[in-house]
Design a protein that fits this description.
The protein has 192 residues and is mainly alpha-helical. Helix content is 79%, strand content 0%. The chain is globular and about 55 Å long. It starts with a helix and ends with a helix.
């Protein structure tokens, strides 16, 4: 990468880091583009070189942060050398839950902004081929069937773990994991 490209990437990363900080501390609605560029110490025009508006930036941030979580979880899963598809999926989920438990602002941001539609648009911006990874793990060739299984797992984990991690309601995450993992194991092992 040349010096110019490196400089551009640093500015984009600075904008994204700053926006993430402001979105998670000040709130998305109360954060303006002017706030982001001021805090990042960049010109307002620089923002528009990389993003149409703050909604596109938010979408890219969800993708970026999700990619970081997922990359870490895949590496963790590969390190664990799990044998069954259910064990591989659970290793990924376990690592992601551990990561977001340690970073509640990240959980609030991703969970609040991640929907299935946004997830599908977000994966267009990342370097991970989610379909291929889950096909290899689960052994499901039918893309529609794979999509339904992954959708179900994502929605189940994100909707149930938000309160468990942030509010320990109805129990804390460690008490909840056995229940969640039993259900996920059933989803993975009993495919129609």
């Amino acid at each position: 990468m040349g010096k110019v490209e490196e400089n551009k990437q640093q500015k984009k990363t600075r904008l994204m880091d700053t926006a993430f900080y402001l979105f998670t501390t000040k709130g998305f609605a109360r954060t303006t583009i002017a706030d982001i560029v001021h805090e990042a110490d960049l010109a307002k025009g620089t923002f528009y070189l990389y993003f149409r508006d703050k909604y596109e930036l938010q979408e890219r941030l969800v993708a970026w942060k999700s990619e970081e979580l997922f990359n870490h979880a895949i590496a963790f899963s590969n390190y664990q050398e799990k044998e069954t598809p259910a064990d591989k999926v659970l290793a990924i989920i376990d690592d992601i839950l551990d990561q977001v438990s340690k970073q509640p602002n990240l959980l609030r941001f991703i969970n609040k902004n991640l929907s299935w539609g946004l997830f599908l648009r977000a994966v267009e911006h990342v370097r991970i081929d989610f379909t291929k990874i889950f096909q290899e793990i689960l052994g499901i060739e039918d893309i529609k069937k794979l999509e339904v299984v992954v959708y179900t797992i994502i929605e189940l984990v994100s909707s149930t773990c938000h309160s468990v991690i942030l509010e320990q309601d109805p129990v804390d995450i460690e008490q909840y994991k056995p229940y969640l993992y039993q259900i996920i194991r059933g989803i993975v092992e009993i495919q129609p």
